[in-house]
Amino acid sequence: MSTFKKSDLLKNLKNSYINFYSKDLLKVIKIFFKEIKEALSKEERCEIRGFGSFSTRIQKARISRNPKTGEKVETPQKKTIHFKIAKELFNKINNNE
């Protein structure tokens, strides 16, 4: 399994858009992720066409177990991020183009 870091994204963008400065491309990346974070913090849905959509969901409070000790622990209600892949990306990943 490989990971894709912000520096890798910057490198790929720099190779694709050679006329742009790295610092400008980095600003674009930061603004992009900042906007997604802000939308999710306001409980708004964020959709990137052809890629997928991000939204928040509420995970109910529950009783869980500490796997190390087996002790029951009360886990409070919390928000989680949900990602739904776009059909276009799903088909490309699964070679159903």
Task: Describe it.
With 97 residues, this protein is α+β, with helices and mostly antiparallel strands. Helices cover 39% and strands 28% of the residues. It has a 3-stranded antiparallel beta sheet. Strands 3-4 form a two-stranded antiparallel sheet. Strand 3 and strand 4 form a beta hairpin. The longest helix has 20 residues. The protein is elongated.
Can you count the helices?
3
Report the average pLDDT across residues.
92
Structural classification: alpha+beta
Q: How far apart are the first and last residues' alpha carbons, in Å?
A: 24 Å
DSSP E strands, number: 5
Strand order of the largest sheet: 1-2-5
Unreliable residue stretches:
none
Amount of beta strand: 25-35%
Rg calc? 19 Å
Question: How does the overall form come out from the CA principal axes?
Answer: elongated
Major sheet: 3 strands, antiparallel
Give the ordered list of helices and strands: HHEEEEEH
Task: State the helical fraction.
Answer: 25-40%
What characteristics describe this protein?
two-stranded antiparallel sheet; 3-stranded antiparallel sheet; alpha+beta; elongated; 97 residues
Compact summary:
With 97 residues, the chain is of the alpha+beta class.
Outline the fold blueprint.
Elements: H1 6-16, H2 22-41, E1 46-48, E2 52-59, E3 62-65, E4 72-75, E5 78-85, H3 87-93
Antiparallel strand pairs: 1-2, 2-5, 3-4
